[in-house]
Amino acid sequence: MASLMLAIMAIATQQQCCHAFQIVSTGYNQKMRLASAAAGDHDIALSDKDQLDKSTAQQFSIQVCTSTSCSKKLNRLGLDQYHILGELYEKARIANIEKDIIVEDGGCRGGLNCKMGPCVAVFHEDFVGSVALEGMAQSEFNERIFHGVSTQDDVERVWSCVTNAINLMANEAKDS
Q1: Are strands 21-25 and 5-6 parallel, antiparallel or unpaired?
Q2: Torsion angle, CA of 55/158/47/168, rounded to 10 degrees?
Q3: Using CA atoms, how far apart are residues 154 and 50, in angstroms rounded to an integer?
Protein backbone atom coordinates (compact mmCIF):
# COMPACT_ATOMS: atom_id res chain seq x y z
CA MET A 1 0.00 0.00 0.00
CA ALA A 2 1.42 3.36 -1.00
CA SER A 3 2.30 5.85 1.68
CA LEU A 4 -0.71 7.84 2.66
CA MET A 5 -0.40 11.30 4.04
CA LEU A 6 -3.05 12.41 6.47
CA ALA A 7 -2.86 16.01 7.48
CA ILE A 8 -4.12 16.96 10.88
CA MET A 9 -3.53 19.90 13.04
CA ALA A 10 -2.74 20.13 16.68
CA ILE A 11 -3.01 23.60 18.03
CA ALA A 12 -1.67 24.31 21.45
CA THR A 13 -2.53 27.83 22.41
CA GLN A 14 -0.61 29.48 25.16
CA GLN A 15 0.04 33.21 24.98
CA GLN A 16 -0.94 33.23 21.28
CA CYS A 17 1.35 30.31 20.40
CA CYS A 18 0.26 27.44 18.22
CA HIS A 19 2.16 24.65 16.55
CA ALA A 20 1.07 22.71 13.49
CA PHE A 21 1.97 19.11 12.82
CA GLN A 22 1.24 16.48 10.22
CA ILE A 23 0.96 12.78 10.82
CA VAL A 24 2.80 11.00 8.05
CA SER A 25 2.38 7.34 7.21
CA THR A 26 5.84 5.83 6.84
CA GLY A 27 5.01 2.76 4.81
CA TYR A 28 4.15 -0.91 5.23
CA ASN A 29 3.83 -1.09 9.00
CA GLN A 30 1.92 2.21 9.08
CA LYS A 31 4.02 3.68 11.86
CA MET A 32 3.24 7.32 12.32
CA ARG A 33 5.62 10.13 13.01
CA LEU A 34 5.13 13.84 13.53
CA ALA A 35 6.60 16.20 10.99
CA SER A 36 6.58 19.97 10.97
CA ALA A 37 3.80 21.38 8.83
CA ALA A 38 6.30 23.71 7.19
CA ALA A 39 8.78 20.90 6.58
CA GLY A 40 12.31 22.10 6.11
CA ASP A 41 11.52 25.75 6.73
CA HIS A 42 12.55 25.61 10.39
CA ASP A 43 16.14 24.85 9.39
CA ILE A 44 16.51 28.07 7.45
CA ALA A 45 18.27 30.80 9.41
CA LEU A 46 17.43 34.27 8.18
CA SER A 47 20.28 36.67 7.67
CA ASP A 48 20.06 40.14 9.21
CA LYS A 49 19.07 41.66 5.87
CA ASP A 50 16.28 39.09 5.47
CA GLN A 51 14.80 39.76 8.92
CA LEU A 52 11.35 41.33 8.83
CA ASP A 53 10.90 44.61 10.67
CA LYS A 54 9.08 43.73 13.90
CA SER A 55 7.48 47.14 14.41
CA THR A 56 6.04 47.08 10.89
CA ALA A 57 4.89 43.47 11.31
CA GLN A 58 2.96 44.54 14.43
CA GLN A 59 0.76 46.68 12.19
CA PHE A 60 -0.51 43.61 10.30
CA SER A 61 -2.85 40.77 11.12
CA ILE A 62 -3.80 37.70 9.11
CA GLN A 63 -7.26 36.25 9.50
CA VAL A 64 -8.01 32.75 8.21
CA CYS A 65 -11.67 32.05 7.56
CA THR A 66 -13.01 29.14 9.60
CA SER A 67 -16.61 29.52 8.45
CA THR A 68 -18.62 26.41 7.72
CA SER A 69 -18.17 26.81 3.96
CA CYS A 70 -14.37 27.23 4.07
CA SER A 71 -13.99 24.49 6.70
CA LYS A 72 -16.00 22.03 4.59
CA LYS A 73 -13.75 22.68 1.61
CA LEU A 74 -10.69 21.96 3.71
CA ASN A 75 -12.32 18.82 5.16
CA ARG A 76 -12.98 17.53 1.61
CA LEU A 77 -9.22 17.83 1.04
CA GLY A 78 -8.56 15.88 4.24
CA LEU A 79 -7.42 18.97 6.13
CA ASP A 80 -8.50 20.25 9.52
CA GLN A 81 -10.26 23.65 9.59
CA TYR A 82 -7.20 25.10 11.36
CA HIS A 83 -4.61 23.70 8.94
CA ILE A 84 -4.07 26.94 7.00
CA LEU A 85 -3.99 28.93 10.26
CA GLY A 86 -1.24 26.65 11.57
CA GLU A 87 0.74 26.85 8.34
CA LEU A 88 0.68 30.66 8.38
CA TYR A 89 1.56 30.77 12.08
CA GLU A 90 4.50 28.46 11.35
CA LYS A 91 5.67 30.88 8.64
CA ALA A 92 5.50 33.72 11.19
CA ARG A 93 7.42 31.61 13.73
CA ILE A 94 10.15 30.81 11.22
CA ALA A 95 10.43 34.51 10.37
CA ASN A 96 10.66 35.23 14.12
CA ILE A 97 7.63 37.54 14.11
CA GLU A 98 5.04 35.19 15.67
CA LYS A 99 4.77 37.52 18.68
CA ASP A 100 4.46 40.60 16.46
CA ILE A 101 2.01 39.75 13.69
CA ILE A 102 -1.42 38.45 14.63
CA VAL A 103 -2.43 35.20 12.93
CA GLU A 104 -5.96 34.27 13.93
CA ASP A 105 -9.10 32.50 12.84
CA GLY A 106 -12.08 34.53 11.76
CA GLY A 107 -15.57 34.39 10.41
CA CYS A 108 -16.95 34.56 6.93
CA ARG A 109 -15.59 37.44 4.83
CA GLY A 110 -18.72 37.52 2.68
CA GLY A 111 -20.68 34.74 1.01
CA LEU A 112 -19.06 35.03 -2.42
CA ASN A 113 -15.58 34.92 -0.91
CA CYS A 114 -16.31 31.73 1.03
CA LYS A 115 -17.72 30.14 -2.13
CA MET A 116 -14.28 30.74 -3.63
CA GLY A 117 -12.59 29.74 -0.35
CA PRO A 118 -10.89 28.71 1.77
CA CYS A 119 -10.07 32.37 2.14
CA VAL A 120 -7.55 34.46 4.04
CA ALA A 121 -7.74 38.19 4.78
CA VAL A 122 -4.88 40.51 5.69
CA PHE A 123 -5.47 43.62 7.78
CA HIS A 124 -3.36 46.69 8.51
CA GLU A 125 -4.01 48.99 11.44
CA ASP A 126 -4.10 52.11 9.23
CA PHE A 127 -6.89 50.80 7.00
CA VAL A 128 -10.53 49.84 7.54
CA GLY A 129 -11.22 46.23 6.55
CA SER A 130 -8.88 43.87 4.77
CA VAL A 131 -6.21 45.15 2.41
CA ALA A 132 -5.32 44.23 -1.17
CA LEU A 133 -1.70 43.16 -1.59
CA GLU A 134 0.65 43.00 -4.53
CA GLY A 135 0.70 39.40 -5.76
CA MET A 136 -3.03 38.74 -5.40
CA ALA A 137 -5.02 37.55 -8.41
CA GLN A 138 -7.23 40.29 -9.91
CA SER A 139 -10.45 38.92 -8.35
CA GLU A 140 -8.68 38.62 -4.97
CA PHE A 141 -7.33 42.16 -5.29
CA ASN A 142 -10.83 43.47 -6.02
CA GLU A 143 -12.30 41.66 -3.00
CA ARG A 144 -9.18 42.18 -0.82
CA ILE A 145 -9.30 38.47 0.13
CA PHE A 146 -7.08 35.53 -0.87
CA HIS A 147 -9.28 32.79 -2.41
CA GLY A 148 -8.76 29.05 -2.59
CA VAL A 149 -5.94 28.86 -0.04
CA SER A 150 -5.62 25.12 0.49
CA THR A 151 -2.16 23.97 -0.60
CA GLN A 152 1.37 24.68 0.60
CA ASP A 153 1.91 26.74 -2.57
CA ASP A 154 -1.17 28.84 -1.73
CA VAL A 155 0.11 29.42 1.80
CA GLU A 156 3.53 30.34 0.41
CA ARG A 157 1.90 32.85 -1.97
CA VAL A 158 -0.09 34.47 0.87
CA TRP A 159 2.99 34.61 3.09
CA SER A 160 5.11 36.04 0.28
CA CYS A 161 2.56 38.82 -0.28
CA VAL A 162 2.48 39.60 3.46
CA THR A 163 6.28 39.70 3.82
CA ASN A 164 6.54 41.83 0.69
CA ALA A 165 4.05 44.31 2.19
CA ILE A 166 5.97 44.37 5.50
CA ASN A 167 9.25 45.01 3.68
CA LEU A 168 7.76 47.72 1.44
CA MET A 169 6.23 49.57 4.40
CA ALA A 170 9.41 49.24 6.49
CA ASN A 171 11.52 50.61 3.62
CA GLU A 172 9.05 53.43 3.08
CA ALA A 173 9.25 54.34 6.77
CA LYS A 174 13.06 54.37 6.61
CA ASP A 175 13.05 56.61 3.53
CA SER A 176 10.76 59.22 5.08
Answers
A1: antiparallel
A2: -50
A3: 21
